[in-house]
Amino acid sequence: MTLTEENYIKGIYHLGKQGKESVSTNAVAKAMKTKASSATDMIKKLSDKQLVNYVKYQGVSLTAQGQLAAKNIIRKHRLWEVFLVEKLNFTWDEVHDVAEQLEHIKSEKLINELDAFLNFPKYDPHGDPIPDKNGNFNSIDKIILANAELKKIYKCVGVKDTSTDFLRYLDTNKIALGTLFEVIHKEPFDNSLKLMYNNTELVVSQHVAKNIFVSIEL
Amino acid sequence: MTLTEENYIKGIYHLGKQGKESVSTNAVAKAMKTKASSATDMIKKLSDKQLVNYVKYQGVSLTAQGQLAAKNIIRKHRLWEVFLVEKLNFTWDEVHDVAEQLEHIKSEKLINELDAFLNFPKYDPHGDPIPDKNGNFNSIDKIILANAELKKIYKCVGVKDTSTDFLRYLDTNKIALGTLFEVIHKEPFDNSLKLMYNNTELVVSQHVAKNIFVSIEL
DNA sequence: ACTTATTTTTAGACTAATCTAAAAATAAGT
DNA sequence: ACTTATTTTTAGATTAGTCTAAAAATAAGT
C-alpha cells in the first residue's frame, strides 16, 4: 500500500463506524482534503485491491481486509503518540502531525518493539484505545460530559475534538486524562455546566461539554 | 524537499567526500539503483534548487546548502539507528532499512528531543559520527585494520562495509565497537591477519581487515 | 588524428495522484 | 411526474519520478 492509499483507508475507517458504514464519495474527498473526482479514482483503485466495497453512486465501506489495514495504521499512529508524549516531552496537542508521518513507517519489528518499550499501553494520550496486533481493542463505556448527571463523580477518559485549540483550552484549565469531575450545576438556559475538580470550580460551555468523554464506571 | 530528492542528496554526499568531490552521473544512478537518464533529470532539478553544482557532462557536487541538507538527513538516520539499537533491541545489521525510512520524518522538535532522550550520542551503532544541529561532527583518527602494525593495541571504532553479511560475520566472531585487537601475525602470501582479542585468536582475510576501522589512539 | 567505446543527455512514453470541466446519475421540490 | 439541484463519475490534462531508445559529448586506442 502506498502512503496515499493508507491515508484513504484510515479516512474511510474514521468516517463510517470503523469503516463498516457506507460513506459518500464527497465525504471521503472532504476528509482527504481533495476533490470528489480524485476520491472516485482512489476508491476504484482500493476496490480493485479488495480493500473497500464499492458500488458506483452508492458510497464505500471497508472490507474485512480494509478494516484490518486501517486498524494497523491506527495502532501505529497511537503507539507513536504515546512515545512522543511519554518519552519525548511532546504535549498532546503537538503529537498529531508527527504521528501522521510516523504511522506510515513499515516494520513489524519496529512497532512490536515500540509497543513493548512503552509497556503495551492500552490508550493513547487522547484516551483513544490502541488496537493490538490483531486489530482488537477495548472500547470502554464512556459518555459525553454534557450527558453527565448531577452529584456523581466522573473520570475524564478521552476527548472527541482533538484540535489544537481545544487541547490547549483543556491544558490551561488543567483538565487531563484521569481528571475527576463532579457536575454541580446545569444551567438550563445555555446548557453550560459548572464543574468541580481539583478543588476548583469552572463553568464550561455546552460545546466544551460535548467534546469531553467521561467514564461511568465510578 | 521530497523523499526522492533527499535520497539523491544523501547519495551524492556519500559518493564524493561529503559531497565536496564531483561525482559522475553514472555513479549517482548506480547508488540510487536507477538509470543514468533518471539521475540526469533529478540532478537538473536539484541544480535548479541550488542544492548541487552541476555542469553538463562534468558531474555533480553538493553546494554548501546541499551539504547541510545531507548532514541533516544523516543526523536523523544515525540518531534513529542509536534509538533502534539501544531502546528497541535491534541488532546493528537490522537497523538500516528502518532508519532509511525514519530519516525522512519532518519535525525539528522530534529530532532534537530524540537526541536529548538518547543523551546526545556522538556515534551511531556502526561507529559513524552523528552531526549536531549545525552539521558539525568529530571525525576521529582512524585507520583500516589492514594497515595496523604488529604488537600494537587497536580499538574497533567502526566498519566500512555495513552489509548484513559482514555485520553478521562480526557478530558471530564477537567483534563489536570497542573491541581491542592485537595483530599477532601478518601472512605475506594473502595479507590475512591473525588477531588476538578477548583472549581468543582469529585469522581474518584481507577483505575483512579492509572493512574494519580501528583507532590509533592507544 | 581518426575511429571506437563509453558516458551522458535528450526525447518521448508510462504510472500514481491530482486537477478542471463536462456528462451522467441520483435526490429533492413542487 | 417533471424540472431543478446536488452528487458522482468520466474525460482529458498536469506533475514527479521513472523508463527505453536514440543522439550528443567525452574518453580511449591505435
Automatic annotation (TrEMBL), chains A, B:
One of its GO terms (cellular component) is cytoplasm. One of its GO terms (molecular function) is DNA binding. The keyword Manganese applies. Residues 1-63 form the HTH dtxR-type domain. Coiled coil: none annotated. The keyword Disulfide bond does not apply. Its main location: cytoplasm. It is found in: Cytoplasm. Keywords: Activator, Cytoplasm, DNA-binding, Manganese, Repressor, Transcription, Transcription regulation. Homodimer. Belongs to the DtxR/MntR family. In the presence of manganese, represses expression of mntH and mntS. Up-regulates expression of mntP. This is Transcriptional regulator MntR. The lineage of its organism: Bacteria, Pseudomonadati, Bacteroidota, Flavobacteriia, Flavobacteriales.
